[in-house]
Amino acid sequence: MNLLTKVELVAEFIVTFLFRKRAGTIQPVEVARELIRAMLKNKQVSISNVYVPNVYRVYLHPTDLAVFESFGETFLIELAKHIYDEGSKQGYTFLTLPVVEIKKGEDMEQGSVNIKIEFNHSIVANWQIEEEKVPRDAEELEKTTVLVDSVRFASSLAKEDSRKICPYLEIIKGPDQGKIFYLDQDEFIIGRNADCDLRVQDLEISRHHLRLFTENHRWFVQDLGSTNGTYVNKLRVDRYMINPGDKIKAGQTLFCFNVEK
């Protein structure tokens, strides 16, 4: 079983007994530290990404559990955000925003913790990433900088024209194998319908199957509720950032995303 197959088995748990204490109630900071260890220990490497678990179930002795439950849901969200922040710093990929659950453990000693992790693409977190608010002064400074940079950029357009990057999709498997589609606009709809930007003759592809779009100079793929799903490097995705060389599968058609320089 390869690593990517392990990622796709959402029912599979990797259980780690991280530490034990002889006596005393476990502290929240200790749980946070051990959650990060569980994340680092259970990395899964794909062709272009390093995936880490997005579901963490913490099992505690009933006495410890009672203390943590008194903190409420806010504490669980704090732990989930802590995992996300640490994983993002390392450039790791989560299937969804991480979720932390705390449960009663069977036959556990007080002060011990048992963490079960899971890769689950269908889990929905009850928190969102907060956008940083830019102070007005900083915003004005940024606009000024952009204006200055735009003048410099305009003077070098002639040189840069000859080195433009042109992204494209090549069909490397399926009924339309060999076709190449250059992505010369910000959004493309792929499917069997006549109004699609990229129409594919594959009966297993939905009429409007997936969307490719650019955001902040990066390309993303988004499934449009298709019947058979959209996969990137064998991982089923809803919305996913793609890199040159990534393989996108829809129906029986396999695309390769790349760039021409």
Q: What's the structural blueprint in terms of helices and strands?
A:
Layout lengths: L2 H6 L5 E6 L8 H14 L2 E2 L4 E2 L3 E6 L1 H8 L3 H17 L9 E6 L8 E6 L17 H20 L1 H5 L4 E8 L6 E3 L4 E5 L6 E2 L10 E6 L2 E6 L6 E3 L2 E3 L1 E4 L4 E4 L2 E8 L1
Describe this structure in words.
By secondary structure, the protein is an alpha+beta fold. It is 27% helix and 31% strand. The chain has 6 helices and 17 strands. The protein has helices at 3-8, 28-41, 62-69, 73-89, 136-155, 157-161, and strands at residues 14-19, 44-45, 50-51, 55-60, 99-104, 113-118, 166-173, 180-182, 187-191, 198-199, 210-215, 218-223, 230-232, 235-237, 239-242, 247-250, 253-260. Strands 8-7-17-16-13-14 form a 6-stranded antiparallel sheet. A 5-stranded mixed sheet has the order 10-9-11-12-15, with no helix packed on it. A 4-stranded mixed sheet has the order 1-6-4-5. β2 and β3 (50-51) form a beta hairpin. The two termini are 37 Å apart.
